[in-house]
Each structure stands twice: as C-alpha cells, then as structure tokens.
Design brief:
Oligomer: single chain
Largest sheet: 14 strands, mixed
Number of helices: 7
Order of helices and strands: HHHEEEEEEEEEEEEEHEHEHEEEHEEEE
Mean pLDDT: 80
Low-confidence stretches: none
Helix content: 10-25%
Radius of gyration: 28 Å
C-alpha cells in the first residue's frame, strides 16, 4: 500500500511538472500571450492605473515605449466651428493574432471621436489608427495633417430622424460635396490630424463613448438575423447614380428609346450604361455636369466629371421617396414607421414586408422601388440609375 501511494505521488508530481512545463513552453512560444490572457482578470487589481475604462483587458501593460499621441478633428456644423482633441495611447494587444515572429499587434486604445453638437445631434469620426505602427507602436513618420476622413452624423442623439454616413478617401472614385448651406456638415471640410504628445502628466481620453457609438458609426445592415426589441429604430436610405447625356450619347438603342420622351420615364436595365464602366471626363460631359450642378448651388471646383455622382432621395411620406440634389456622395438614412409629421412612430415586427410598398415619386411618375433600374428625366437631361435601397437598425433608447 505504501509503495502504491509513493508511486501515485511520483506520477502526480511528474504529471504536474509536465503540465506546468507544457504551459511554460506554450507561454514562451506565444511570447507570454497565454499568461497575459490568464492574468487578465488579476492585472486590473494589481495595476488599476492601467485598467480604467481607457484600456482593453487584453492590453499588455505597462510598456515604456507605449507612447501617446494627440488626435484632433475639425469641422463646421450649422455655422459653428468645432475643434476637438483626444489623447490616445498605442498598446500591444495580446488577444490579437501575431503579425510576424512572436510580436503582438499594436493598436490605439481609442477608436472614435464622439462629439455632441449644440442642437442635440452627434458627430462620430475615426481616430487615425494608422498612427499606431503595427510593429513598433507610435509611428515614426511625420504627423498626420488634414486627412480627409469618413464620419457619421445623427440629427438627434436620443431619437434620430435621420443618419448620414460618409466613408471616403482622397482617391475615391465618387464625388463628395454639398450644396451651399443646405446641409449641416460638408464632408470636404472635415479633417483629422495626429501628432506625438510628449507632456509628462497625461490624462488619456476615455473609450466609453467609442464603445457605445461604434454601432452608430458603422451601423449594421444585417436585419435578417437581428432580433428587434422595443428600442429598435429602423432607418432606410435610397441612393441613385446620376448619368449625363454625354455618357450614353454613343448608345444608339438608348438614344432611340429616349428620343420621344417628354415626361419622367423608366429605362430598361438592358439599355443602361454599365454600373462600373470606365468614365470618360470629356469636355461635353464636363459642360453638362457644370450646367446641372451650378443651378443647384454647387462649387464646380469641388466636382470631378471623371468620378461618379451619387445623390440620395428623401423620404417625404410614409412610403414615398423624392429626389434631393443637396448632397453628393455618402448615404442618408431616414427613420421608418412614422407618418409625414414624424408622429405615431411604431415598432415594425416585419420591416422587410413593410418596405415592399416603398415607391419613388417624381412629377408624373410613381413607381415601386423594386421596379426601377433607371429613371430618365427629360427636363434635366439625366438618368437616375441603379438605385440602392438599404435598411439599417439602431438599438437606441427612443424619445418617449
């Protein structure tokens, strides 16, 4: 019996040592990722100064080379200028996959600017994440200056009637502009910047708002799998591409089809120019673009005839959409299940069935959205083509 107990103890100790050795080996080969993950629940208690709401639990702290930077966003909103700073720290996240060897990927602890506006609206933009170099932490390149940036805008934070999203780069294939003061924020005038921040006493910006508004900034369109609740807000957008006469002048079948049309007319899909065809910025197209948009208050210098022109339609009645030329580019979503005065808003159990009755109304033409591939407007000499009808949701407390 004693011999049996002895060998049981030996086997137990051996097993424990092998198990512990395996964990140490695994931890070593993963550059201590295992122990960092296992210790995540204890590190906030040991080093609380590194684990307030500012940091991720999987961050590897402290790091002497985890340098901070200051990000700034500037924009104009309804004749007011906004300039907002955030102090951001780069950190190595042990919860992410390695990029080379056994090193960790570097991230910034803060993802978004969230700027409350003076009239109850909200502005959300990206922090310039590329300032955190993937391999070494804070980038050693020059500070980022005046980087054109995408953003999201809600007209009312508590109970939005509409939401706008812009995601664009300087080399984007589509135009982005607004017509005079008809629009609250001009995307062309939104800029972000970032630079090193070397002050000794540093208060890092909180990421609580980033977490709360991340779904607003890039709202989900996956309504098929979404389980709605009493606070679910549905918003729908309808966007179309503007085609000018110079773009179909060589399309003999389309020219013949349109030759006798004097009222808004549906254009068969087979006659339309390709959705992603190469655009030819000819002098004729440039003249047509200038004539059309100058009448609507645009600065022509901001428009490129070689790029696409997307305009949105405005939801004017419960299921009625009308074209609006005050914005080029981006996507504007309108809140659904309300009447024309935005009253009697109600939760929709089956939003897809509800949207089937949406129609476009332009002068004498009234047509269901699903039947439209293009609409020819003879007075404007344009075709509104390839409409995109998209619905998103926000799970946000609505105004009672």
């Amino acid at each position: 019996m004693k011999i049996l107990k002895f060998w049981s103890s030996v086997l137990g100790v051996t097993f424990f040592l092998l198990f512990a050795g395996g964990l140490v080996f695994l931890d070593y080969t993963l550059d201590h990722a295992f122990s960092y993950r296992f210790g995540a629940i204890f590190r906030p208690l040991i080093s609380p100064e590194y684990y307030d709401d500012t940091y991720q639990k999987t961050a590897q702290w402290p790091l002497p080379d985890s340098k901070p930077f200051k990000a700034t966003v500037k924009f104009e909103y309804k004749s007011r200028s906004y300039s907002v700073d955030r102090v951001v720290r780069c950190y190595r996240d042990v919860g992410k996959m390695n990029v080379h060897g056994t090193g960790f990927i570097w991230y910034s602890h803060l993802k978004l600017f969230v700027v409350p506006l003076h009239d109850g609206g909200i502005f959300i933009a990206d922090i310039p994440g590329k300032f955190c170099d993937t391999y070494s932490g804070v980038s050693q390149s020059q500070p980022i200056k005046r980087l054109a940036n995408g953003f999201t805008y809600l007209d009312n934070e508590k109970s939005p009637t509409y939401l706008e999203t812009y995601f664009f780069r300087a080399d984007t294939t589509y135009n982005v502009a607004v017509s005079g003061k008809k629009h609250p924020i001009d995307p062309k005038k939104v800029y972000v910047s970032a630079e090193w921040y070397n002050k000794a006493d540093i208060d890092y910006s909180s990421n609580k708002q980033s977490q709360v508004y991340s779904s607003y900034h890039n709202p989900s369109a996956a309504i098929l799998s979404h389980k709605a609740n009493k606070n679910t807000l549905y918003l729908t957008g309808l966007r179309t591409t503007v085609l000018f006469k110079a773009q179909w002048a060589k399309n003999a079948h389309l020219v013949e089809f349109l030759s006798d049309k004097t009222e808004p007319t549906l254009v068969p899909k087979g006659l339309l120019p390709g959705r992603h065809g190469k655009r030819d910025p000819s002098k004729e197209l440039e003249q047509q673009v200038n004539t059309f948009f100058q009448k609507r208050g645009y600065s022509i210098e901001a428009l490129d005839p070689g790029k696409y022109f997307y305009v949105f339609m405005r939801l004017t009645e419960l299921h009625e959409w009308q074209v609006d030329y005050s914005q080029i580019g981006g996507f504007r979503y309108f809140r659904r299940a309300c009447d024309a005065e935005f009253k009697n808003c109600r939760f929709q159990e089956n939003i897809r069935q509800f949207l089937k009755t949406d129609f476009v109304k332009i002068r004498g033409l009234t047509e269901n959205v699903t039947n439209i591939s293009g609409i020819y407007l003879p007075q404007e000499q344009i075709i509104l083509s390839y409409p995109i009808h998209k619905t998103i949701y926000l799970d946000a407390p609505s105004e009672k």
